[in-house]
From TrEMBL:
The protein's Enzyme Commission number: 2.5.1.72
Comment on bound cofactor: Binds 1 [4Fe-4S] cluster per subunit.
Pathway, per record: Cofactor biosynthesis; NAD(+) biosynthesis; quinolinate from iminoaspartate: step 1/1
GO BP term (any one): 'de novo' NAD+ biosynthetic process from L-aspartate
Residues that, per the record, bind [4Fe-4S] cluster: 89, 218, 308
Species per Swiss-Prot/TrEMBL record: Occultella aeris
Residues reported to bind iminosuccinate: 25, 42, 128-130, 149, 244-246, 261
Stated name of the protein: Quinolinate synthase
Stated role: Catalyzes the condensation of iminoaspartate with dihydroxyacetone phosphate to form quinolinate.
Gene designation: nadA
Length: 357
């Protein structure tokens, strides 16, 4: 019973008081978000995990890579808890550390290791936050950095100051959309095929590459289409179309704007006149924004409901269970990144936090 679960979460949270902090990503369902102390995009939540060093436990209502990031940034004594361990991210799973290491070896064979006359190394690896801690560690070990959808351009600039080209993974769309907006021509963005050796990848294209893209994508955002945008424009003259940069390039190009989940929230918040917004991102966020801003008309571009199925795995029942376990002195579902991965992964994250626009 939802009311019963809500009461159980409230009671356990009240008993724990300041001992616990609950973080919630914008894509979480309403029954979970209502209990969160901080709600935000993945960059904001990474920062939020630094703000309560006094809390014994950080309960992360989001997906696995976000909880790993919170573990990397929080204090060593703090336990980061993911209420349901099955809450992963299919995009993060698309870049596997062995395949990335193999790609790196082949790129090193192709480009060598010598810096150019400006001291820029041949390749800087950049991983999207939506990746395993192992991949963040790979970036930390190899002079690279992490980005999120809210700072991808800043991070790419950081990388181009230090490298002649970038290997960007796992999300091809965020990489392509961001680099294109910075003026990188599409021909200079070949996609690496991890199932082929160097000779099977287009060596001529790699020779001219500025950004080498990985083949990953988000199964939620790739569902948005240019046809949906055309339909929204036909049915709602004057509509403002805002999409997440994980959408395919033609969709981002056809939209009026693109940005992270918090960018979308801020754009709606800043609109002074009643406006119609068609939004290309996860439906839980779109529905919450529609309820919070009744002066506007806000709808999801995809008429067939489009949730992130793994974010949805954080059911309030799991939240009640982990909080009640903490009350009972147990620490369930703790996410701990092993030290050998944690040190370089933290370095890559700290480079991101220090990179200024
Ligand atoms: P944000 O960084 O915009 O919160 O995006 C996270 C995410 O998983 C989008 O699919
Ligand atoms: Fe991963 Fe896409 Fe879900 Fe974000 S929306 S957590 S990228 S599957």
């Amino acid at each position: 019973d939802p009311a019963d679960l809500d009461a159980r979460v409230r009671a356990a949270k009240a008993t724990l008081g300041d001992r616990v902090v609950i973080l919630g990503h914008f894509y979480q369902r309403e029954e979970v978000v209502t209990h969160a102390d901080f709600v935000g995009d993945s960059f904001q939540l990474a920062n939020a995990s630094l703000t309560r060093p006094d809390a014994e436990a950080i309960v992360f209502c989001g997906v696995h890579f976000m909880a790993e990031t919170a573990d990397l940034l929080s204090g060593p004594e703090q336990a980061v808890i993911l209420p349901n361990l099955a809450a992963g991210c299919s995009m993060a799973d698309m870049a596997d550390i062995d395949q990335v290491e193999e790609c790196w070896e082949q790129l090193t064979e192709l480009y060598g290791t010598e810096p150019d006359e400006n001291g820029r190394v041949p390749v800087i690896p950049v991983t999207y936050m939506n990746s395993s801690a192992a991949l963040k560690g790979f970036c930390g070990r190899n002079g690279g950095i992490v980005c999120t959808s809210s700072n991808a351009a800043t991070v790419l600039e950081w990388a181009f100051e230090r490298g002649q080209r970038v290997l960007f993974f796992p999300d091809q769309h965020l990489g392509r959309n961001t680099a294109k907006a910075m003026g990188v021509p599409l021909e200079a963005m070949p996609m690496w095929n991890p199932n082929k050796p160097l000779g099977g990848n287009d060596e001529r294209a790699l020779g001219d590459a500025q950004v080498i893209l990985w083949h990953g994508f988000c199964s939620v955002h790739r569902r948005f289409t240019v046809g949906q945008i055309e339909q929204a424009r036909a049915e709602h003259p004057g509509v403002r179309v805002i999409v997440h940069p994980e959408c395919p390039m033609p969709v981002v190009d056809a939209a009026d704007e693109s940005g992270s989940t918090d960018y979308i929230r801020k754009a709606i918040d800043a609109a002074t006149e009643p406006t119609t917004f068609a939004i290309g991102t996860e439906v839980n966020l779109v529905q919450r924004l529609a309820a919070q801003y009744p002066q506007h008309t806000i709808f999801c571009l995809d008429p067939v409901v489009c949730p992130c199925s793994t974010m949805y795995r954080i059911h309030p029942g799991y939240l009640a269970w982990v909080l009640e376990s903490l009350v009972a002195g147990e620490v369930p579902n703790r996410i701990t990144v092993p030290a050998d991965v944690a040190d370089p992964a933290r370095l890559a994250l700290e480079r991101m936090l220090a990179a200024k626009p």
